[in-house]
Amino acid sequence: MQNELIELSNVMYAVDFTKKKAEQTGLDLVNTMFENGDHTPIQVYSNIVRLKAVIDSADKAFRDRLKLVSADSYNGVTFTPKNGAESLNYDEDLVYANLEHRLKQRLELLKLTSKSDEPIFDSEGCEVPKVSKKYNKSSIVITF
């Protein structure tokens, strides 16, 4: 199976198979399947989900093991090495750490207020307002 996958990856797509073409191929696959109705969508999707897990795992392994000194291209795909980003240790600053802690406490008060019928007051005696709610986009949770 692994040798077949490696061979398939070598001949599967022409050099001019761009990212846009790849994305369009995926959309066309779904549109055709739903329009023709000759397959059960959830069954096809389950195979795509499993295949995506294989691809994601292989992608992560390649990223972990492939060491590039400079940019390289193959089949119209460019691989460019990037050094890790620099970030500051803000928590080393006591003022920042204190403000962050107070924000976390305020967040907990806002959550408590949203669930309470009674007014809630902060440590300074100010009433904590009830804030509005917003909802994320609905989605499908996939497990296997």
Protein structure class: mainly alpha
Q: What's the mean pLDDT score?
A: 90
Low-confidence stretches at least 5 residues in length (pLDDT < 50)? none
SS strand fraction = under 5%
Helical content band: 40-55%
Biggest sheet strand line-up: 1-2
What is the element string, with H for helices and E for strands?
HHHEEH
How many E-type strands?
Answer: 2
Tell me, what's the shape? flat
Largest sheet, in brief, is: 2 strands, antiparallel
Number of helices: 4
Q: Separation of termini?
A: 21 Å
Query: What Rg is obtained from the alpha carbons, in whole angstroms?
Result: 25 Å
Task: Explain what you see.
- With 144 residues, this protein is mainly α.
- The protein has a domain of 65 residues.
- Helix content is 52%, strand content 4%.
- It contains 4 helices and 2 strands.
- It has a two-stranded antiparallel sheet with strand order 1-2.
- Strand 1 and strand 2 form a beta hairpin.
- It is flat.
- The two termini are 21 Å apart.
- The model has no long low-confidence stretch (mean pLDDT 90).
